[in-house]
């Protein structure tokens, strides 16, 4: 990467890390959405919070009747208090596809309705291996795990006296780290990394005063993890919608953390042949390191856009992310290649 290219990749990674520091599981996204709005506004673009809580941004452009919509999401996995147990522990229900076996032993924050925040840890029930002879054989689920609150509590009454109630939000510590070799490790790179990528693209457009031949909108959604994030707020004139979400890395796939992935098909079916072809051609034109893959277990915002009745062509790209819905890993090169692909696709 040359100095200019490093500038925008580093900017995107830096902004991603800032956003990862704001807890925002599905249904608890107001602070993250405000941050996103303010960041795009600071770059000189019009941004507004939608009724649903997402952020709609206009990057400008000429052809308003052939507009393109880029979608990413800032909602993440998390939990919600579903029961205060007699022993003062919390049973939680997942928000999105959070898995108990992955979240076990992770630090959490419990947000109460009156603005208090308490620390805790998700643990297996009876978590001491020197006491529990079934520790290794117990199946992990949200029925066999519990949140241990870091307060002096031993009863339901003790917990309710803290102000903790059923319905309170439980946020998992992201543990964000960027290594000297350029790897980005954190929970919830899906999809805050893509929000950072869109900010990097927007900064490039702002700094270079690039002219967009087509009107370009961004929608940072807040309900993707439960399936309806992209189902609203499609601006008039949009003919193409592209999800910028994580690219899958795993057995049988070509993508790595250092590439940008172009999805040809996922669990919702094939993406637009025309759009996928144009994305491939844009990657080649920009000399971006890319892979085309079929994702076996995946759904995206843009499929929610289609199911809402929008008459648009659709596509999906994203920086390669390993260990999705777990402790995820990507790389600055994947960020860089994603920005390059988007630049090529938008002809800026």
From TrEMBL:
Cofactor binding note of this UniProt entry: Binds 2 divalent metal cations per subunit.
Record-linked InterPro entries: Peptidase_M42 (IPR008007), Peptidase_M42_aminopept (IPR051464), Peptidase_M42_dom2 (IPR023367)
Keywords assigned by UniProt, alphabetized: Aminopeptidase, Hydrolase, Metal-binding, Protease
Gene Ontology MF terms in the entry: aminopeptidase activity; metal ion binding
Domain of life: Bacteria
Pfam families per the UniProt record, alphabetical: Peptidase_M42 (PF05343)
GO biological process: proteolysis
Binding, Zn(2+) 2: 190, 225
Family label: Belongs to the peptidase M42 family.
Protein name (Swiss-Prot/TrEMBL): M42 family metallopeptidase
């Amino acid at each position: 990467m040359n100095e200019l290219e490093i500038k925008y990749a580093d900017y995107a990674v830096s902004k991603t890390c800032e956003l990862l520091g704001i807890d925002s599981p599905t249904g608890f996204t107001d602070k993250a959405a405000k941050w996103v709005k303010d960041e795009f506004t600071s770059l000189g673009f019009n941004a507004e919070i939608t009724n649903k809580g997402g952020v709609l941004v206009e990057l400008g452009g000429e052809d308003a009747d052939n507009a393109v919509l880029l979608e990413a999401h800032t909602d993440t996995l998390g939990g919600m208090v579903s029961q205060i147990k007699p022993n003062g522990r919390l049973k939680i229900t997942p928000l999105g596809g959070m898995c108990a076996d992955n979240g076990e032993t992770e630090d959490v924050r419990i947000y109460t309705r009156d603005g208090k925040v308490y620390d805790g840890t998700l643990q297996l029930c009876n978590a001491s291996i020197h006491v529990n002879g079934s520790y290794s054989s117990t199946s992990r689920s949200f029925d066999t795990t519990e949140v241990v609150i870091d307060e002096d509590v031993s009863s339901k009454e003790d917990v309710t006296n803290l102000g903790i109630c059923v319905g309170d939000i439980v946020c998992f510590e992201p543990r964000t780290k960027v290594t000297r070799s350029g790897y980005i490790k954190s929970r919830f790179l899906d999809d805050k990394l893509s929000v950072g990528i869109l900010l990097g693209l927007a900064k490039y457009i702002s700094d270079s005063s690039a002219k967009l031949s087509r009107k370009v909108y961004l929608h940072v959604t807040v309900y993707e993890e439960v399936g309806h994030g992209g189902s609203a707020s499609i601006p008039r004139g949009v003919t193409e919608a592209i999800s910028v979400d994580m690219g899958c890395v795993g057995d049988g796939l070509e993508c790595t953390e250092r590439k940008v992935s172009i999805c040809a098909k996922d669990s919702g079916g094939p993406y637009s042949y025309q759009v996928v072809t144009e994305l491939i051609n844009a990657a080649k034109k920009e000399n971006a390191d890319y892979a085309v893959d079929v994702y076996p277990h995946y759904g995206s915002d843009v499929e929610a856009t289609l199911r809402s009745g929008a008459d648009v062509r659709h596509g999906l790209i994203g920086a390669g992310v390993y260990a999705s819905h777990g402790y995820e890993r990507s790389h600055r090169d994947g960020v860089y290649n994603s920005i390059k692909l988007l630049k090529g696709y938008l002809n800026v």
